Amino acid sequence: MRVFETQLPGVGQRYQITFSDGGVFTIVIHNDGSRQVFWRDDPDDDGKELFTTTERDAQKLAEIFEGVFFDPVADDLDDALSGARIKWVAIPGDSPVVGQTISDLDIRARTGISILAVERGDQTIANPESSTELLADDILVIVGDDDAHQALDTLLSKSG
């Protein structure tokens, strides 16, 4: 990878990043702080603008590239989570669980499912308390193995 920096009088600064396997990534930083981002498959091609962004959004993108928000997962965690599936499951309006609390239903003991969150309209209840009442059309964010998911499906169904 090679980086070229060019002063653009009256405009700002241009950075061109040429990748060894082809392609040129260009960022133009305007004097007002906005950024234009371009991509060319070949140095001789005309560039295609990918997007324009504000200085603040560009800083957020830079933080993401830098890995500020990323916390690597340990390799041994894959074994610990083997078989676990995270799913989003809607509670039907005619479900027998509607109006009951997580504690009343004893969901963890009966199904093996852990509820990570409840999405209710625009609200997300992260790590819900056992006293959280389940309502029609709530979306449960759950984790468990395939058997646990099947047990929860049975509990949520009319015949549950």
From TrEMBL:
Source organism, top-level taxon: Archaea
Every RCK C-terminal domain range: 74-158
Protein name: Cation:proton antiporter regulatory subunit
Originating organism: Saliphagus infecundisoli
Taxonomic placement: Archaea, Methanobacteriati, Methanobacteriota, Stenosarchaea group, Halobacteria
